[in-house]
Amino acid sequence: MTQASTQATRKSGPSAALSNETLLGWLRDMQLIREFETRTMQAYQQAKIGGFCHIYSGQEASAVGTIGSVNRDDPVILAYRDHGHALARGTSARACMAEMFGKGAGCAKGKGGSMHMFDKPNWLFGGHGIVGAQTPLGAGLAFAARYEWEVLGTGKKKVCLCYLGDGAIDQGAFHEALNLAALYGLPVIYIIENNGYSMGTALHRHSANSKNLISRGQSYGMKSVEIDGFDVLNVYDRFRPLVDECRDLQRPAFVDLKTYRYMGHSMSDPQKYRTKEEVEQWKERDSIAALAAHLMASESEGGRGCLSEADWKEMRGEVAEIVRDAVEFAEAAPAPDVERELYSDVFINPMARLSPSREYNHGEPNPLL
Amino acid sequence: MTTMTAPVPPGGKRIEHPALPGGFAVPDFGRPLPPREGERVIQFREALREAMSEEMRRDERVFLMGEEVAEYSGAYKVSQGMLEEFGPKRIIDSPISENGFAGLGIAAAMYGLRPIIEFMSWSFSLVAADQILNNAPKMLYMSGGQWGCPIVFRGNDGAGGQLGSTHSWCVEGLYANVPGMKIAIPSNPYDAKGLLKTAILDPDPVFFLESERMLGDKAHVPEEEYYIPFGKARLVREGDACTVVSFGRPVNFCIEACERLAGEGVECDLLDMRTIRPLDMDSVLRSLKRTNRLVVVDQSWPFGGVASEVISQVIEQGFDWLDAPPIRVNTEDVPTPYAKSLEAAYLPNAERIAAAVRRSLGR
Q: Which CATH number fits domain B234-360: 3.40.1050.10, 1.20.1250.20, 3.40.50.2300, 3.40.50.920?
């Protein structure tokens, strides 16, 4: 039985209660991420994007299914493979692309780049470039959300999503964060987007007891689950109840979300550590194709029957147009004004004599705020 | 993000900023500071406690986290009694996990709380270097002005008394190299209270460097609330012979040295910088124009340190006012030794400072 037909016969689980509109929206988001990343690679190869750039293609079901399980005002924090999550969270394709092009219209005014997607209105606390460094921050966001609800009495129960790759589980910061989260009862879910490789080092070569990653979470007494991250409905069915539980009980959880990236670790990766056949095998299970098939299958076939071939073609066309527009926008947008922006956003409260070089100033307002 | 607006101390004002939910409060720095002389003599550690407690009473967003801060009453009794007043949700014992709880505090600050993170020793902050150097001071810039980091990291800095090389770090030489944070380093109980209160209100990351060797120092500390502005050096003594610049604990050695020199008929300006970033070069240059001689005393290593920075800026901005080469007095350029005699020789002291001034005067 193919993955598509597994989905096509799905009848139970929380996803069964989701509206057709929601699922069509997810399909659109996943396709947007795929298309966005394709154009990102093109722009990178044309040297319009600099620095390090990590492509999310293949992993779309992970971001869309997990972010689809939380509220708009639940904090989200990411590692550096962050374009997909930002788009899934609602950051505009224009702001993301302009950021990578290093333009002032970017979501971080061109000061962050590919690895640092921040979007305050969408409660996105950044992509983070140092492997594992975001894991204590995830605990801190959960701490603050709980403090706001419990001590200040002005908030509500929230859940923080903290994403990391399988490479980050070997970092000390990660273990410190898990301990703090479990010790203090912090509502944070650590999502290991396990794509099987820490850069070019396969999971079994970089981490001990690699077939049992959830033991990491279990050893801190956290509820820990494995999820097939290649099937967005399965992600939601398994992840959504965990979110509800963490929110309700104000406690952390750990997820080994198994996924796969189609592209290299970064744009400069020759991928000598894996075979083309391995990549092709995963592509046969492609999460976008599977969701489209499910939405096209009739209800009697166990599908939704809410998408025709023509609709799907139209949707892909719309998405391609959004991304094309984003690239055009990014290209046309002006570079940050050096005089105004180099020394701005260093301090909220700049003072004289903070630097021997120059006084700090306030720059342009962030376009997202 | 919290919706709570920043409470404002009497006479102060609130300033809004898009990166900071609730804005931030600025005290009324125009108000004259209360007298330094008086009868209310308390310890340095009590002054720190008073600063934190006053701000915590006004602002519920402020919390204290660190090793042994709550049930143990603070490894050095700085937070004694605070657990009883503020409860375990705001005075929080952490595991020995500096990178973890430093990062926790940083994100809590981004979210809108006002964390005070205590390092039992700044020496231990080295294992949290990624969080405190990569995240706290860069978050606002990296996010294009979206997320600030209003946090105070504080703890003991410098040699504590035969603690050996790993526990005796003076981090100012290392950390002052990084843009994006403010660094305060008080030399006495009065300044400790006023500077720490300013640090807690400030919307940017502040590294607050105390000294285990000074926690028992006693002086008059006014009961009233007062805030000492950052970037304003204090002229501790006045004299035309030489400008002596220092910060933190060595200011006290400088006072001793200046007293000895006064006995020899040499009167010096002594400037207590109080903050390293910002660095009040205006006061240094003003003094230099009178004395034309400069000695900088710094308890961290000499290579690329804060004393080197002061001298660099003097050479860039006040070269013509120098009648003699500026001199720096640092700790010796070796790992901190354990033996009492070696440690004493390693640290700056009144004799070395006085000798440097005499050398500057050609004596």
A: 3.40.50.920
